[in-house]
């Protein structure tokens, strides 16, 4: 089932709205939510528009639509088709409700009132067996018929799946490589400067005695004959 939902802004990973999770869910998912923040800080408009990220007993699914990232944390066994249809439904309602306001907000969770729709949609998608069998939805759900929703489930065969540990490690490695590359460039510049100085010192040691003798003879001849 869908355990938790958060909606972020792509440009700066500012959280715009989220589900209201109970204390036990919040405690169980705290590590996964921290991981999701690390991932979303690295996303931009050119990132994969949809992806599933596996992390232990849970899978994090995200969908980028325009300037917004829609993310949900689900049980690892929860069908991907349902997860992305759930996110797609959130994206349509969120864009309809807040279009034109998303880029201007500056405080976190500025659209926290959207949790009402999140809650209703989460209840609709709670039982994956009911959804996939096409049973009629309860009156409180946002869609009138689950059989219609079942016909419109998103095709997720081409959506990429990644592992959270590999993703974070790769990102950390890229950061480390960038730091090492900067350090190596600095060290290389120092080495070149030191090498030039060593060459100059070697030339001075080689030619200074000869130059000194030549200068002595020039001064002697000038003094002797002029």
TrEMBL record:
| Gene3D superfamilies membership | 1.20.5.110, Longin domain
Q: Name one GO cellular component term.
A: Golgi membrane
Q: Which keywords does the record carry?
A: Coiled coil, Endoplasmic reticulum, ER-Golgi transport, Golgi apparatus, Membrane, Protein transport, Transmembrane, Transmembrane helix, Transport
Select a single GO molecular function from the record's annotations and give it: SNAP receptor activity
Annotated TM spans = 207-225
Say yes or no: keyword Aminoacyl-tRNA synthetase present: no
Membrane topology field? Single-pass type IV membrane protein
Instruction: Note the coiled coil stretches, chain numbering.
Output: none
The record's similarity note reads:
Belongs to the synaptobrevin family.
What protein name applies here?
A: Protein transport protein SEC22
To which species is this protein native? Tremella mesenterica (Jelly fungus)
């Amino acid at each position: 089932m869908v355990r938790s939902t958060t909606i972020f802004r792509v440009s700066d990973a500012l959280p715009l709205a989220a589900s209201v999770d109970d204390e036990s869910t919040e405690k169980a998912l705290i590590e996964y939510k921290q991981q999701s923040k690390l991932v979303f800080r690295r996303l931009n408009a050119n990132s994969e528009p949809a992806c599933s990220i596996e992390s232990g007993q849970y899978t994090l699914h995200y969908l980028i639509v325009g300037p917004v990232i829609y993310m949900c944390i689900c049980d690892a066994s929860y069908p991907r088709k349902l997860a992305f249809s759930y996110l797609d439904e959130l994206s349509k309602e969120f864009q309809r409700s807040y279009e034109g306001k998303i880029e201007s907000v500056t405080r976190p969770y500025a659209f926290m009132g959207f949790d009402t729709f999140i809650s209703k949609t989460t209840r609709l998608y709670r039982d994956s067996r009911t959804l996939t069998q096409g049973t009629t939805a309860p009156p409180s759900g946002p869609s009138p018929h689950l059989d219609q929703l079942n016909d419109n489930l998103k095709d997720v065969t081409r959506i990429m799946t990644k592992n959270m540990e590999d993703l974070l490690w790769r990102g950390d490695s890229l950061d480390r490589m960038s730091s090492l590359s900067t350090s190596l460039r600095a060290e290389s510049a120092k080495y070149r400067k030191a090498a030039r100085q060593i060459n100059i010192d070697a030339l001075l040691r080689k030619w200074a005695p000869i130059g000194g003798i030549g200068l002595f003879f020039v001064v002697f001849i000038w003094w002797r004959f002029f």
